[in-house]
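Please study the protein below:
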Amino acid sequence: MASKIRTGAVVTAAVVAAAALLGPTAASAQWGADYLPNVALTNQDGKVVHFYDDLLKGKKVAVNLIYTRCTATCPLETAKLSQVKKILGDRVGTDLFFVSISIDPDHDTPAVLKAYAEKFHAGEGWSFLTGDENDIKLIARKLGLSSISDAKNRDGHQPALMIGDVDNGNWMRNSAVDNPQFLASTIVNFLGLKKSAKPMVGYAEGAATFKAPDQGEYMFRTRCAACHTIGKGDMVGPDLAGLTARREKTWVARYLREPEQMLAEKDPIAVALFEKYKQVRMPNLALKNDEIAALLGQIEKLSPPPQKTAKNLAMP
């Protein structure tokens, strides 16, 4: 469940929650120009912008931290947000702006960030930014995107997304790897964005047709669907149809457990996949053996017959 953080004319409990997350200054400060840093950053096009004046002021935003060499959740975060952007359509870039800030500024130059954005089809309304390391740490601390536990996290930060109506001082902290449809609905409702021409499914209608997914279906939806399909062609990563018929299950299982290790060892298939799919790293999702088994079972269940998948055998 998302934890809401609101400032300004809001209930005291929310201010206390913000203070606990962000430090003592947040309890008494409106999240405006006097609180949010206005440090200089450089976007993926090489343009210098100021964090508050150019990226936040007068806008509704979704802000997260990433870095392009990440071997854990960053690729999944970016892929999920790409799906959210697709769901929201032209509201991104007009009513809402995405802001992704690198925590690895030494490596993530504007050119590197531009290439990374293109891999995930980021498009208009989504800024990828780099800058001075201390300035980025300040932004992270002020927005509640960093915590003491981050140092112990394999990825160096939690996959959190701050959703904000800047002028009204209303903010919500949400998981950046949530279900894209749910996250899009959350953003629309929280920020009061204009509704899409395509109506969303109502609660009664959804409840009537709801079927709880089994473990394999759940694993695919939450871990894989942002980057892969089964039988519908390549996305950010390869089509997984017929995967276990084309790869030894032991290889697939190990690749799901430790993709970064196999890439470091220069496993020929891992390297070929890395190069073919624009050097997007397969994230280490910390899957357990039973989860891997359930996931592979789901892929096998949904894979079309071999003759129908021949055209999709794009994996090297």
Notes: The beta strands are 3-6, 40-43, 48-50, 60-66, 97-102, 126-131, 160-165, 170-175.
